[in-house]
Amino acid sequence: MSKQTDIMEKIVALCRRRGFIFGSSEIYGGIGGFWDYGPLGTELKRNIKDAWWFDMVQNPPPGPNGTEYQMVGVDCSIIMNPKVWEASGHVGGFSDPMVDCKETKSRYRADQLSVIQGRDADGQMFAFTSDDEESEDKARKKAAKYFKVSVEELSSATSVVPLDSIDVAAFARILGPDAKEVGTLTVPRAFNLMFETYVGALQDSTSKAYLRPETAQGIFANFKNVMDSTRVKIPFGIAQIGKAFRNEINPRNYTFRSREFEQMEIEFFCKPDTSMMWYEFWRDTRLAWYESLGIKSDKLRPRQQGEDELAHYSDACTDIEYLFPFSEETQELEGVAHRGSFDLNAHGRASKGKEDAFAVIDDATKERFVPHVIEPSAGVDRFTLAAITEAYSFDENRASPEFMKFHPRLAPIKAAVFPLVAKDGMPEIAEPIFRDIKKRMPCQYDAKQSIGKRYARMDEAGTPFCFTIDGQTKDDGTVTVRHRDDASQERIDKSRCVEYLQDKLGL
Ligand code: GAP
């Protein structure tokens, strides 16, 4: 087991044990790609969404060169008129190439399979799931046996190539990842990722609808409503946080690729000739936001997409990526895309019969134009997972070796109050302190078990400070403050607990 896999397993175990994340419907064996957040995970996720809303919508940073702009929010329905998804291109094109194994009934994304092949043009090939050490090990063992070499000698006798690069005529020679027979993988077929449902009593093509695969289209569909009902003027942004659903072929890497997840999206509308300036502004703003919440810059990587990767409507896109423990490569947390006028044009054409139906007029120049859009689109669950992995710390020299170094804004519980023993007048002093803190921020009271165990519980929850009321409190009115990150302790007057927290947490 590699060190990285080991860390991921420890994180998953801690998340389950302490109630950050559970598998959905576990009592019935679970369901792939769906997750539930427990009490601590729910607070953490809520803190992430609140921080995003406050920093991007209610109190956004100054625009480039002091340019004024406004930000407003919407909260749209998950199920929309299916014509939205036809116009946006999702009905026709929101698909991944997929490969089925006829023997095991497993389904794989074609771009996530790799193949071990020998030099012999007619020889057998061995498929495995890329980025999955166990699957690769199995394929290597089978290949070594077939090529009559040791596993160590395999790389000199074979090469590893993506499945995409294999001619479909040669699929008959591939052994699927878990198959016993050769040639059971189907050729890649497009698989639409949208979940379908039916609206109303009838279940036919006229009542078919979709669970939204992104929150963005609700914003575009309401562009005119927002302009007409508020006093926003270009440049401005509309933000939305909400659930999105994708029937991912291969949900994996814990919550990273789920079938139900939350997005935090901004569609920022601007004049076409200023769009590159706003694109750079949002790319830099979003990167700085992750850093401000404690994501270390050496694990964060902005990656500008190459020309060949760009979506057909996009002039530029930067993926903000993070180095998760489950992969050696950085993975996408958020995409900041320049979408041009693609979406407003598409909805103008489909809903009003005119591409420029959503054009606006510049007050000063009287110029008429369809706004261009910059879209910072972030995943709540992916950032939650990044915040968890970033916070996860292990120090075998501590009495409680595992602790979560959450940034204070994200910490699910900000403080805990403990009477050293549940007698001798200590609870009577501790309870009012607890109630005072609780009015202002999430705080817990714990009077059970040894003080070491109570600190350990709070360390695992990522609580930055604990206040302990002990024998000395009765003598001189001071309490012990215990710091999560280095387990150090100091004493402060019991009347200063709230002020101390506000100062240290910057809340
Ligand atoms: N409106 C643009 C859009 O939806 P995307 O790159 O497909 O773009 C944006 O998704 C973000 O949503 C991603 O950067 C990621 O954080 C999150 N996301 C996408 N698919 C996801 C999945 N299957 N599970 C968890 N998060 C996902």
Short description:
The protein has 507 residues and is an alpha+beta fold. The strands form eight sheets. The protein has a seven-stranded mixed sheet. The protein has a five-stranded mixed sheet with strand order 24-23-25-26-27, with helices on both faces.
Strand order of the largest sheet: 3-13-14-20-17-16-15
Regions with little confidence, pLDDT below 50 for 5+ residues: none
- Percentage of residues in DSSP E strands: 25-35%
Query: Strand tally, please?
Result: 27
Radius of gyration: 27 Å
What is the global morphology? Answer: globular
What are the bound molecules?
Answer: glycyl-adenosine-5'-phosphate
Residue share in helix: 25-40%
Mean pLDDT: 94
Strand count, sense and barrel status of the largest sheet are: 7 strands, mixed
Distance between the termini: 41 Å
Number of helices: 15
Which structural class do you get from the secondary structure elements?
Answer: alpha+beta
Topology of this structure?
Elements: H1 3-17, E1 21-23, E2 35-37, H2 39-58, E3 70-73, H3 82-88, H4 90-93, E4 95-100, E5 107-109, E6 113-117, E7 125-129, H5 133-147, H6 154-157, E8 159-162, E9 174-175, E10 189-192, E11 196-198, E12 208-210, H7 216-221, H8 223-229, E13 236-245, E14 260-270, H9 275-292, E15 300-304, E16 316-322, E17 331-340, H10 342-352, E18 360-361, E19 368-369, E20 372-379, H11 380-391, E21 392-394, E22 402-404, E23 415-419, H12 426-438, E24 443-445, H13 451-461, E25 465-469, H14 471-476, E26 478-483, E27 489-493, H15 497-505
Parallel strand pairs: 3-13, 7-9, 23-24, 23-25
Antiparallel strand pairs: 1-2, 4-5, 4-10, 6-7, 6-8, 11-12, 13-14, 14-20, 15-16, 16-17, 17-20, 18-19, 21-22, 25-26, 26-27
Helix pairs in contact: 2-11, 3-10
Bound molecules: glycyl-adenosine-5'-phosphate.
